[in-house]
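Sequence design from tokenized structure. All designs in this work follow the same two-part layout: the structure record, then the generated sequence. An example of the structure record is given first.
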């Protein structure tokens, strides 16, 4: 877990070399499954170009080969690391539903993926409490309300709060103070795709970053400059967007 968070942060601090794409699938039973992919390929290439032996010299990078390349839940990862298991049964249940893996391309590290499998609204409430301590880089949109037919999007969630908090918690005090002012420089692009098992019947509310792609898909594309520049005015910026499915 520590190594994965280090790699995530290292990728982000490789300025504009990190791409984050999330997909949230909304199931008919009012649960949802989300996958966040952190693409580190450009970052790894930059690291190798700057310091050819860096991956071997730095223990954190050298241990990347030890990370699972198949989906592995957080509880099993802790067991493998020999760490003490949580006593709280709710924490255990949540950890069993959160998965991570290292992605590889041409036999080299290419990125990290995080999955939350079939989470209910109750699970997300527990996740909020769990994340206050663990500081996982979660997509804020997972906390929008979904009842199996209607998704209510709070566009206040169109931010990088969890990512910022993850960065601040894993860096020095001096670096943490710089995070918010520089966050828009850390990313190449960030987007979230919302997919529904049932056909979309109607969409109420508008936002410049939200676009319906087809009968089952909504795409959210963050404008990082507009997110942090208060002088930029959006044409459409409704606080609530309701997506009703058949």
């Amino acid at each position: 877990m520590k190594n994965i968070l280090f790699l995530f942060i290292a990728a982000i601090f490789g300025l504009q070399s990190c791409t984050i794409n999330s997909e949230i699938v909304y199931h008919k039973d009012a649960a949802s499954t989300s996958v966040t992919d952190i693409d580190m390929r450009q970052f790894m290439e930059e690291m190798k170009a700057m310091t050819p032996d860096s991956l071997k010299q730095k223990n954190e990078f050298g241990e990347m080969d030890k990370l699972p390349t198949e989906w592995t839940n957080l509880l099993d990862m802790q067991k493998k690391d020999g760490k003490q298991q949580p006593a709280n049964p709710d924490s255990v249940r949540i950890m069993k539903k959160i998965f991570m893996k290292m992605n590889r391309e041409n036999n080299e590290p290419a990125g990290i993926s995080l999955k939350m499998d079939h989470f209910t609204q109750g699970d997300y409430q527990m996740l909020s409490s769990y994340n206050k301590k663990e500081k996982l880089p979660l997509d804020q949109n997972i906390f929008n309300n979904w009842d199996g037919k209607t998704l209510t999007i709070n566009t206040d969630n169109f931010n990088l709060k969890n990512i910022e908090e993850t960065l601040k918690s894993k860096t020095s005090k001096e670096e943490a103070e710089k995070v918010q002012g520089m966050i828009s420089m850390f990313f190449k692009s960030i987007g979230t795709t919302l997919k529904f098992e049932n056909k979309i019947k109607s969409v109420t509310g508008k936002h410049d970053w939200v676009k319906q792609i087809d009968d089952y898909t909504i795409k959210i594309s963050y404008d990082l400059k507009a997110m942090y520049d208060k002088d930029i005015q959006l044409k459409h910026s409704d606080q609530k967007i309701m997506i009703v499915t058949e």
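The chain has one domain: 16-245. We note this feature because it recurs in several other targets discussed in the main text.
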